[in-house]
Amino acid sequence: MRVAAALAGASLLGALVTAPAFSASSADVAAAQKQLAQYSSLPKWKAPGPNINAKAISKHKSVMIVPYLEAIPYNAGFAIAVQLADQKAGFAKTYVWASDGSVTSWAAGVEQGISDKVSVIDLISGVAAAYIEPQIQQAEKAGIVVIGSTNDDPSVPTPNYLSAVVPLGYALAGKLEADQAIVSTGGNVDAIIITSTEVPPSLSMTPAVQARLGALDPGGTVHVINVQPADWASPTNGIAAAVQSAIAADPSINYVLPNYDSEAAYVIAGINAAGATGKVGVATFNGTPSAMAEVQAGTLQMNVGEDLTWAGYATTDANLRALLKPKALGRTYNENLPFIIFTKKNANNVGVPPTLTKGYGNAYLGYLKTWELRK
After folding, report:
1. How is domain 54-168+308-336 classified at the CATH fold level?
2. Which pLDDT belongs to residue 370?
């Protein structure tokens, strides 16, 4: 696999590597197809732990949610999912901090939670907790449980300054994106990866995409473009401009793999501006409605969907379990968060127009039994 320099002012991650003379026939398309098939059906319930009495644990308790950036549709949808699950579990109140994506804003959200005397603070959707460790420790000193939910891959060690974390399979999502590119191109990938190194999940996703492509399509080429969330929409330094410039420099590019589907609209705009409509595929991750509409339209070839309803319940489950031992630190709760591959063939399962809650089945309702709310 050759790692090629990206253009349009975007930064290159990794050194320039010259590829050996492999042909497309050396690519393991079958392995990519096999893994994609494993994530093409509805998930099954697997309890995250022993049953707990949710109503007893949550009584008179409140929660503050601090998302990475509330303006990102996925973040806003996730926060709503946690609110609904908290309500079901019996929490008295769940607040959502209007985060602007800055460290200052995350810190202010934690401080507001301390001021409001909440019982739990949830840092969700990619908040880089290391930057606000002093505020987290202040909260814990005040008796507040602080949870990091879906901020990192399971391979990332749980920080000992957090009460607990709920990991999400970001590396797996990246591998599935790579698999889609390999299958779609018949093992002849020339791809752009759009990453955002300020967002912790990208530090797991991008290397996973590169490793998967290197393992299954060693003759492929990868361009890595680094654009931070604040610049995604920039007409000069944003994703669309970077994609357009990269395709102009390498017209053989045939796939773009943005880490998150909130980047997809900008990717598609860049492809169109480069005159490559219909020639360059896109595979991404999250399953937010606006991006799922692009899958339904055929302008986005694949989206690795994450069930936000399940993720909301998973976060609430972590809140409840952590409250049983509020002073304990460094715990990891494996909530078995599932993925489903969506293509044009099954994209209508999420609704027309798309919703955040359809298309994943209702296995997550197993939480109600786990919480002793249903027999």
Report:
1. Rossmann fold (3.40.50)
2. 98
- Please give the CATH architecture assigned to the domain spanning 2-40+170-306: 3-Layer(aba) Sandwich (3.40)
17: left (phi over 0), alpha (psi -120 to 50) or beta: beta
Cβ burial of 234 (10 Å; 0-12, 13-18, 19+) is middle
pLDDT at 241 over 80: yes
Distance, in Å, from the CA atom of 255 to the CA atom of 309, rounded to the nearest integer, reads: 30
Structural domain boundaries in the chain? 2-40+170-306, 54-168+308-336
DSSP SS3 for 128 = coil
Contact call for residues 286 and 332 (beta carbons, < 8 A): no
Instruction: Give the integer Cα–Cα distance in Å for 334 and 165.
Output: 9
Q: How many CB atoms lie within 10 A of CB 291?
A: 29
Instruction: List 123's β-bridge partners, or say none.
Output: 66, 148
**Listed range (25-29, 40-44, 114-118, 348-352) with the worst mean pLDDT:** 25-29
Per the listing, tokens 């997809």 go with 264
Q: Which residues are CB-neighbours of 37 under 8 A, at least 6 positions away?
A: none
Angle between the 308-324 and 73-89 helix axes, to the nearest 10 degrees? 50
- Strand 164-166 versus strand 93-96 pairing type: unpaired
Cis peptide before 354 (omega within 30 of 0): no
Please give the pLDDT value at position 25.
Answer: 57
